[in-house]
Amino acid sequence: MSSKVLSGRRQVYPTKSLPVTVPGYQLTFDMVGIPYFEPGFGTIMPVSDSEGCDKAASEQSKLVAERMCDCQAGSPLHCIAHLITRKELQHIINTEGGNGNPDFGYQLIEVECNTYDGQTITGVTLIDTHIVTRGYHPSPRYLKIIMDGAEEHKLDSEYIERLKLIKPYVASTIGQKIAKGVLVTTVFPFVIPVIISALSAQILKTKPSRAISLYFEGIKRLLWTMHDWVLRPVFGKGC
Q1: What are the tens digits of pLDDT across the range 125-145?
Q2: Domain boundaries, the chain
Q3: 115-118-123 Cα angle (round to 5)
């Protein structure tokens, strides 16, 4: 995540930031979002569990041969370890998917990280513990936030090239654009309370109520049911 978003928008101010690798994990976008708009959000997954994509085969590029597919970046995971306060960490948890509820959304786990200068440190990160491999893609907006952060903090150049190979989801066909319109007119009015709650939590640095979190989980399930059984067969996939 770029400092423009982390500090400017999220109001989290790290006192130290280090590029690190996390062995045994890779970045995926299988945290469920909203079809046709923000299909998948970032999470990390143990490499042994990432079976949804076969390794690409290419004699022309070792980089392409090593990457899992166009929605994963391969292992080891490269990312940024930020030194922040407990209060800032709790603010991040409260304003990410699930809002810190233990039954769904992101959960906090410890991971072992290796800094680029050879040190081993213990970090914490958010992961969807109920995740399954879906092969979802990020939106161009979401992927840009990740790319900006990777370049700003000078992640390994080869890993940045892997990130560039991730294909963002764009509703490009007429059918997919119609499906977006259907969601906007039929379901999105019900998302307005969630948006208001999220903005309030961001500004006031409070935790949205469990009722709002459960409500949004229900809305997402409705959206993906519509996508899988109605919109995708008729208009094309939204992920």
Answers
A1: 999 877 777 789 999 999 999
A2: 3-169
A3: 35
Q: What is the pLDDT of residues 43-102, one digit of tens each?
A: 998 886 444 444 443 433 444 334 346 888 888 999 999 999 999 999 888 888 887 777
Quick one: angle between helices 210-226 and 192-204, nearest 10?
140
Q: Binding site membership for substrate: which residues? A: 142
Cβ atoms of 132 and 30 within 8 Å: the answer is: yes
Give the count of beta carbons closer than 10 Å to the beta carbon of residue 177: 14
List, by residue number, the catalytic residues: 96
Q: What does the DSSP assignment read for 35-100?
A: TTTEEEEEEEEEGGG--SSPPP--SS-HHHHHS-BTTB--SSEEEEEEE--HHHHHHHHHHSTTTT
Which residues, 6+ apart, have CB-to-CB distance to 117 below 8 Å?
Answer: none
Six token digits for residue 129: 């513990």
What does CATH list as the number for 3-169?
3.10.490.10
Structure tokens at 124: 């914490």
Q: Residues near 194 by Cβ (< 8 Å), separated by ≥ 6?
A: 212, 215, 216, 219
Q: What is the DSSP letter of 104?
A: S
Cβ within 8 Å of residue 85, ≥6 positions away: none
